[in-house]
Amino acid sequence: MIPDTESPPQRSSRRTGSARPLSAATLRALLHDVFALSTRSAPFLPRVRHRVLRKLPFVLAAFFALDLAVPTALAAAERLDLVWAGAAALGCAQALPVVLALRWPIAAWWLSLVAMLPYGIGLAAMGGSAPADAPWPWTETGLIAHLTVTLIVAWRAKPRVYVTQWLITVLAGGLLTVLLTPASDDNDLFLLALLSAFGLAVIAVVRGRSEAEHKLREQEVLTEFERTRRALLEERTRIARELHDVVAHHMSVIAVQAEAAPYRVTDPPQELSDSFASIRGNALSALTEMRHILGMLRSEEQPSDGRYTPQPSLENIEELVANVRAAGLHIESVVSGAPRPLPKRVELSAFRIVQEALSNALRHAPGCQVEFELSYGRTDIRIRVSNSPATGARQQAGRGHGVLGMRERASTLGGTLQIGPREDGWYEVTAALPTNEGEGV
């Protein structure tokens, strides 16, 4: 055991060690945001499609900057005795950030701060010859330009960024006042600090409300999505319940009756027993697949425990052919090419298409001859199911969705499906399904 007298220093050192990296990381993140000169802001009018209207904020900012640059140049030329070229350069340097702030807010703010310094330094250098009524440490229009840039940055940047910039501005003005001798008692540092603080507070309130409304709209969209999703799940559950109550009951009765039927007759013929066994096997197979469908309806995803698997694949084709042959369908099957494992959805779609085509032949063309061919190609598999005209009594035609289901399965895989009569009177179903070997099996 460690003595109690040693535990407090250890806990204290751990807290100190964990606090320092956190403060250092916060400081590094703040410095990165404040000096991210290459950061570009999103367009002011992102939803406007017209190109001219999207440029409207830049046009207005340019006119406003020009309106600030001219009086700034005149004031610099008059108060600092600068030549017109120097005064114009100073006026443009202080006004240009207003336009740049729309696209590069951080870089524009730093340029605006640097462009304000020459005026105060120049007044201090002139000493007693400087005008007594000259504002300090920046011009009136320079103050407006910098305030405008600060508010634009506050609208686009994080709160910690524009608060830090406000502190840097006040600190820069204070250093000019302390380190240099003001040429005038008209110090507008307090005015800039007050106006910018008020503007930043207004921006913070407006942005906070806008972000809250945006989050509220997002929450409303999510709520509506969840409501729709819940209604869909409830409908799927209701369908699954109805399928179970209606279909499962009757299929179970068929399976039980088919199993018990041979025992009701003394020495039944073998053909009769085989027929009932086939009926029972088909009923049980239908029940198994129906449970799989019910499982998918009741849950959004395929369960990982595999209780609804396996799905039929091309390995079960021979079993399917034997099943319909036992039901009385005269069928000749041919498999060409080299069988190989394919993606599960391809094998399932191919099996279902063959199953539906054979079922249609059995139901709508009794007594017909059927030719079935499955070909493995290099990039696809091809299916052909042809049946001759019916020789027996047809079942009553229904309005099923078998053909539509086959078309949907083929189109989902990017394949093709053709269904229709041939010139010799036979009816044919052909399908070509891409194997998409890169998907895996």
Short description:
The chain is α+β, with helices and mostly antiparallel strands and 441 residues long. The protein is built from 12 helices and 5 strands.
What topology emerges from the helices and strands here?
Layout lengths: L6 H28 L16 H4 L1 H24 L4 H17 L4 H22 L13 H17 L2 H21 L9 H72 L9 H29 L18 H10 L3 E7 L7 H21 L4 E8 L3 E8 L14 H11 L3 E6 L5 E8 L7
Helix pairs in contact: 3-4, 3-6, 4-5, 4-6, 5-6, 6-7, 6-8, 7-8, 8-9, 10-11, 11-12
Explain what this protein looks like in three dimensions.
The protein has 441 residues and is of the alpha+beta class. 63% of the residues lie in helices and 8% in strands. The protein has helices spanning 7-34, 51-54, 56-79, 84-100, 105-126, 140-156, 159-179, 189-260, 270-298, 317-326, 344-364, 402-412, and strands spanning 330-336, 369-376, 380-387, 416-421, 427-434. Strand 1, helix 11 (344-364) and strand 2 (369-376) form a beta-alpha-beta unit. Helix 3 packs antiparallel against helix 4 (84-100), helix 8 (189-260) runs antiparallel to helix 9 and helix 10 runs parallel beside helix 11 (344-364). The longest helix is centred in the middle third of the chain and has 72 residues, at 189-260.
